[in-house]
Design brief:
The complex is a heterodimer of chains A (about 260) and B (about 325). Chain A is mainly α. Chain A has one domain. Helices cover about 75% and strands about 0% of the residues of chain A. Chain A starts with a helix and ends in a 6-residue tail after the last helix. Chain B has two domains: about 240 residues, P-loop containing nucleotide triphosphate hydrolases (Rossmann fold), CATH 3.40.50.300; about 70 residues, 2-Layer Sandwich (Alpha-Beta Plaits), CATH 3.30.70. A six-stranded mixed beta sheet of chain B has the order 5-6-7-3-8-9, sandwiched between helices. In chain B, about 35% of the residues are buried. Chain B is built from eleven helices and 13 strands. Chain B has about 325 residues and is of the alpha/beta class. Classes of the chains: A mainly alpha (about 260), B alpha/beta (about 325). At the A-B interface, α1 and α5 of A face β1, α2, α3, β5 and α4 of B.
Amino acid sequence: MRKYLYIYKSELMSQLQYLFNLVFGFIGCGIILFIFFNLWHYIYSDSSQIINGYSVDQMIWYVIITEIIWGACMGRTLCRKISNDVRGGNIAYNINKPYNYIGYSLASHLGTATVKGIIYTVLALILGLVMMGNFPTTNVLELVLVLISSILAVVISSLFTIFIGLFSFFIEDSSPFYWLYSKFILVIGVIFPIEYFPNVVQPFLKFSPIYVVSYGPAKLFVNFNINDCISIFVAQFIYILVAYLLCSLVYKKGVRRLNVNGG
Amino acid sequence: MNEEKAIRVKGLKKTFKIKLKEKGLIGSIKGMFKTKYKKINAVNDISFEVDKGEMIAFIGPNGAGKSTTIKMLTGILYPDQGEIEVMGIDPRRKRKQLAYEIGTVFGQKEQLWMHLTPYDNFKFFGAIYDLDERVVEKRINELVELFEISEFINTPVRNLSLGQRIRCEIAASLIHKPKILFLDEPTIGLDPVVKENIRTFIKRMNKEYKTTIFLTSHDVGDIEKLCKRIIIVNHGEIVLDDSMDNLKYHYLNKKIVEAKMKEKINLDDEEGITILKDKGYNLKIEVDTTKRTVGDAIKLLDPDKIVDINISNVPLENIISDIYKSGN
């Protein structure tokens, strides 16, 4: 475990070199939040109105939390890196080291996600407070549970990204699959809570990754409920286990097929 | 297993399946429906042994199969056939266990974290190899002294010169005291002075830690100055496995005579004498001393007309190049 903590720490130290880049990277996220602030206020003609169980403030805080998680675990670079490692043969230099490649990729990506997550959280919460002047919950225990759930969401999203990246062992380029996955999460999971979708679709969405990587932590933040909390945590742990097993399976099969020619 | 052997390889084979594509757009469209493959015997029945503490050069032209062999030795690739033992470990079955016994340096691929300092990198590699903090600190001090790194130990790797970086790469790969170090083109792109420094460090490391060195390089200087034994591979097969002294001895029967003449002289090839270069006043002749003497060559030139003369052995580079070309 110590080696993975070191990988995490090393990536964290590397990312700190780009602190200002990451702060500027938040500008895009800030613009989206500002747009949704105005959009939801336009949709909710009356601020006391409740639509699908959410007030206007809850809807905006929901988008703030999902945007923070999404910003922190953005996996395009990770997927491209794994894909390039596999196709270009660079993975060979990781194989002969005494660590697990999946553990290495995950620890390294979490190092990046931590720095981005802290910057996005601080800036997004300040922006949310300035825009709305309130905070959905100030209960420390609830906030801690939301934080843990958000961290688990980032871990699951990273594992899914690694899983998609590892498909490069079998197909030429796995980035189109990541594109599909990211758009699925972004369009359906980040912008709207599951309750906004037709009743017939909702059970499917509750079994989809959306429930554990975006909806769960955001829902707990805007409307904490202990039963939801337990089911979200259980689902997250199951997802972590399944995603890790899938990654290991694909990696094990893939490495046997690895052809690295040349010097 | 023989206790004295660091590496044992027997009947090693590896075949690659390469995708073929017919030329042009039509070829690309055809390829979408029917893919043709070509089999390439990258490594074809290779057997050799390396003693513990030996410094061996494993060389060959591009595409000869040397990198594939190294990758099989380090557990990166699975051989199709044959036996491998590296420090008594089968890389196919116990790749992770083997990782603790070996170190790798690839001159063309950085393994260090570019944004971190060499010190942080050494600490990182120490943790990767499960070393205790105190052991890592002690080891860092040893390596800093051995490779003279103290001056730039706290400079981010991205700001180091190539020579400094390679020194750090080698030092980092030694943090866990590997029994065998695989060096793949360690001096590529370095200037002659830095190359010489790196070679000195490698020699010192081999002497101090008795590390077995398995070197791949196209630089004849690396091979000549570091290794006592040479294995040449070509077309996936070993074409020569001999000591450096033997190799040179067999080729010592050829001498190179370079002469600067007072006036132009016309010479033709004769038995045992080959004109390599004729620029009128400057001549370069190869003499096969099993057939003719160097004196014969000088007589042909006419000693009274010679301004300057230099007699030398055939450079190792030419010997190796001849072996590559002849294939045996």
